[in-house]
Design goal:
The chain is an alpha/beta fold. The chain is about 20% helix and about 25% strand. The chain is globular, with a radius of gyration of 16 Å.
């Protein structure tokens, strides 16, 4: 019998849970967040990102979202409307560019708390070594 394990939710720490959740939902074109106890919840497919507030230190986290080509264009347009910086790489060495890894498109941007968000149109490694633009994480043969 195949495993039925799925990621249900993860907690995202920020300064203002409502602002952070609203930002994510608006940028990704998702339904508005809902309140669940002390969490502001953004539903992303079967998984939710549950935002909670802290006055303490925030450790940067990374969240990657697989989107369609059309969704990529819509999200990219919303980022540009807000004049938000974006990068082709997670180390922020290629500002103002998108990547074409796995012969798709991807980019990175920050949320209001400094968490690194990523949108990609192809899963990592899905283009294989034969892709015109193979993912740099694939081993070289």
């Amino acid at each position: 019998m195949p495993p039925t394990v799925r990621l249900n939710h993860t907690i995202v720490v920020g300064r203002d849970k409502s602002e952070s959740a609203r930002f994510l939902a608006e940028i990704l074109g998702l339904p508005p967040p809902r309140m669940l106890g002390h969490f502001a919840v953004v539903q992303v497919g079967d998984t939710s990102l549950d935002f909670v507030e802290t006055d303490g230190e925030i450790t940067q986290r990374h969240f990657a979202f697989l989107v369609s080509e059309e969704e990529f264009d819509e999200i990219f347009a919303r980022l540009r409307e807000r004049n938000m910086p974006f990068w082709a790489d997670p180390f922020r060495r290629e500002p103002g560019h998108i990547n074409h890894w796995d012969d798709g498109r991807g980019l990175y941007f920050d949320d209001p708390n400094g968490h690194l968000l990523e949108i990609i149109t192809r899963p990592y490694g899905s283009g294989g070594r034969d892709a015109k633009n193979p993912n740099p994480l694939l081993p070289r043969t």
